[in-house]
Amino acid sequence: MTRYADPLACPDCHAVLPVNPTRCPSCDLPLTHPLAAELLRTLTYADHLLAQLRANAAPLPAYPVPAPRPAPVPAPRRTGVRTASVPKILLGLGATCLLVAAVIFLAVAWSWLGVGGRTAVLVTLTVATGVLGGWLGGRGLRVAGESLTVVALGLLVLDVVGADHAGWLGDLTQDGLVLAVGGVVAAVSLALALTPPRLVAPQVATTVGLGLGVAAAVQLTTSDLVVLGAGVLAFTALAAVGRLAALAALPWLAFTGATVTWIAFTTNAASNLEAAGSLTFGTVWAAGPGWALLAATGMLLLPVGFDRRRETVVSCAAAAASLLSITLTLPGYDESLTVATLVALGLVAGWAAGSYAAPADWAVIAKVPATLAAVPVAFVAFVMSAGAAGRVLLAESTRRTDHLANPALLVPSVAALLLVCAMWLTLPQVRRLWPVAAGSLAAAAVATLALYPVPLWILVTAIGVLGAALVIDALRRTATVGTTEALLGVGVLGTALVAGRPSDLLMTLVLAATTAAAAAMAFRGRFPSASSLGDLLLPVAGAALLWSSFELADVETVQRAVPVLLAVGLLAIARPRVELEASAMLAGAAAAAASVLSADDSATALAIHLTVAGALVTATAVVHQSRRDFAWLGGFLLALATWVRLADLGVETPEAYTLPTAVALVLVGLDRMRRDPTASTSMAVAPGLVLPTVPSLLWVVATDPVSLRAALLGVACLALVLAGTMLRWSAPLVTGAAVGAVLVLRELAPYVAQTPQWVVIGLAGTLLTVVGVTWERRLVELRHASAFVGRLR
């Protein structure tokens, strides 16, 4: 039996304990602590309980193992037609067959049956199927009742057609027959729909019959608007009847028919307006369809009589208000665009006032027509803004041009659009967005100014003031909106720069304002990304300002880039940030390229600019610890300047280009190894060793391998190998060995072609023999090892 308490073993790791232990020699568990004694007592009591449990344990009775239950047989997957669909299919097919049979009877038996026989047969079949359908529907067989009712209604159509063929209805035209069929079907179907069990088929037939009647009546009369208006009212009354009778489908079907008829009514009225040619008071109201549009407006309120919920009332009232505002102002839209815009502005102002005066729950009734009236206002504002932007970009603001609308309407139009937006926002949202509204109005005022033939300096000043104001307002903000406002301000200043490009003075002033804005954002901005945005813009704006100032002072183009390079370079040294350094590099490169391309002696100009750029980059690396890696770029620019200058002087030896820079690189690398004992030679001195050796090697390989240059290069490679071996430096050893090996092989090349072929064959045979011997030797050693292993016991 298992024991829990063992005084000779550690209770934790179960290691054997020595005599009178104080700690476990294996796990260092303290054994003299009071808790150890308490643990021993607890484990001893556990052994006592385990012994009692073993003594009182009784064998469990054996129960027969139940037999495994068979797995349930999966139910077969349904693949056929649903049971409920079978009678629908059968009854639908039966109704179709009955109707086809009735049509055939009407076509074939009509000639040999008398009038009485024909009448008796059709009426009997119609009444019988109708009564039987209602009876079956009342007994719970609704599918059968619907089917037979459809057959009865179809026979009813045949009855009316037969009566017309018999001449009982007079000399009806085709439209008249359709009107008669529609009226009879609608009346009979409505009676059947109101009779229990209130089947759906008569409700559908009622709506279809009324629709056929209205369509036929439109064709039979010249008063289309009167008929269509009466049709809307008839469908509305039908919906009311269905609602009062608690019919399921008739109200919705009638509402659909009323909607279609109302659309036809309104479209017909609009077509009559178009046929009038011009929208005047007389053509709209005196002799025109103005009354129809007012009636259509009133018809939009008809659903309120059936549904008094707030959503329905608000929707219908908003739609009616929108159509009413358009109807009342129709004559104004046929005038000039200025008059039409004034009319739309009046509507926006009126409905906006109504929305603020109405209770909050009903204000949307005025907001919807105000928003619709703002659509033409937005179009006019967009057209005029696009025209102003085009005049600014093309520098045509001083020219007089004709506009579609009066430019003075641009600011009111923007104000109206802002008013409409404010209607749909809450008061806190409006308060937060008031700077956007103020900026929009200011931009609209500037655009209005651009639409008039004003002097260029006035327009540029206005645009510049707007951009500066946006930047100044953005400086005091701490939220993200400040970033957006600053970007807009910079964009507006760029627009002022484009507008003022015909004048060097205006461009200089705008660039001065842009540079000041960039400096303010870089050093004083509090909004997110203010310093980054300012650092990106400041070098470019400053360089452009200097260039424009030189242009204003008639300084030659070739002399402008050096001051620009010095300015942006010193700025990058004073403020070592990645954004500013990248922008300064682009601005300096653009200025240098422009100066070099305009110089008569482009090589000398290129060497000067490369020298200045290299000195500035190297100075950055010297001044700032974090920019030490820039020393490589600075050295490369200086070396490139030297190469350009030497090439301009006619020097063709590569060592004149590479040795000065190589010496400088080696000295820099040695200094780094002196300061950092852990620095590797491959990173410190390898660039300085590769720079003078590889170009000379390429020159030797490409031109004359037997020359003084080749000899000196070989001596240098030997010196590098010996120095690397003695100093245990990998860079000179690898460089000297690699370059020396290529040089030796190139020295051997002229003599390879003069070697006899037997020498080549002999060398190949020797190589193959050595390889074969080595291979066989390895096989013998493998056999000996296998035999030795096999003799082991």
TrEMBL record:
<protein>
    <submittedName>
        <fullName>Uncharacterized protein</fullName>
    </submittedName>
</protein>
<feature type="transmembrane region" description="Helical">
    <location>
        <begin position="370"/>
        <end position="389"/>
    </location>
</feature>
<feature type="transmembrane region" description="Helical">
    <location>
        <begin position="630"/>
        <end position="647"/>
    </location>
</feature>
<feature type="transmembrane region" description="Helical">
    <location>
        <begin position="505"/>
        <end position="523"/>
    </location>
</feature>
<feature type="transmembrane region" description="Helical">
    <location>
        <begin position="252"/>
        <end position="271"/>
    </location>
</feature>
<feature type="transmembrane region" description="Helical">
    <location>
        <begin position="682"/>
        <end position="702"/>
    </location>
</feature>
<feature type="transmembrane region" description="Helical">
    <location>
        <begin position="409"/>
        <end position="426"/>
    </location>
</feature>
<feature type="transmembrane region" description="Helical">
    <location>
        <begin position="89"/>
        <end position="113"/>
    </location>
</feature>
<feature type="transmembrane region" description="Helical">
    <location>
        <begin position="605"/>
        <end position="623"/>
    </location>
</feature>
<feature type="transmembrane region" description="Helical">
    <location>
        <begin position="150"/>
        <end position="170"/>
    </location>
</feature>
<keyword id="KW-0812">Transmembrane</keyword>
<keyword id="KW-1133">Transmembrane helix</keyword>
<feature type="transmembrane region" description="Helical">
    <location>
        <begin position="339"/>
        <end position="358"/>
    </location>
</feature>
<feature type="transmembrane region" description="Helical">
    <location>
        <begin position="758"/>
        <end position="775"/>
    </location>
</feature>
<feature type="transmembrane region" description="Helical">
    <location>
        <begin position="482"/>
        <end position="499"/>
    </location>
</feature>
<feature type="transmembrane region" description="Helical">
    <location>
        <begin position="313"/>
        <end position="333"/>
    </location>
</feature>
<dbReference type="InterPro" id="IPR058062">
    <property type="entry name" value="SCO7613_C"/>
</dbReference>
<keyword id="KW-0472">Membrane</keyword>
<feature type="transmembrane region" description="Helical">
    <location>
        <begin position="199"/>
        <end position="219"/>
    </location>
</feature>
<feature type="transmembrane region" description="Helical">
    <location>
        <begin position="225"/>
        <end position="245"/>
    </location>
</feature>
<feature type="transmembrane region" description="Helical">
    <location>
        <begin position="708"/>
        <end position="726"/>
    </location>
</feature>
<feature type="transmembrane region" description="Helical">
    <location>
        <begin position="119"/>
        <end position="138"/>
    </location>
</feature>
<feature type="transmembrane region" description="Helical">
    <location>
        <begin position="283"/>
        <end position="306"/>
    </location>
</feature>
<feature type="transmembrane region" description="Helical">
    <location>
        <begin position="176"/>
        <end position="194"/>
    </location>
</feature>
